[in-house]
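**Discrete fold encoding**
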Amino acid sequence: MKLLNEIEILKRKLTLIAARHGDLTHSCVVRVSQLLDKKLNEYERVRRRSGEGA
């Protein structure tokens, strides 16, 4: 659950920062996007691992 909460927080943060800067290539937007991507990949690995054990 903690991982899903982190993903939701990063999604909201990304939306706010992108709207504030108005540029998807701004360094802040790119940084948060990379963090979100990392968390999504981590979530996918956890999900696959738990699916294999079932």
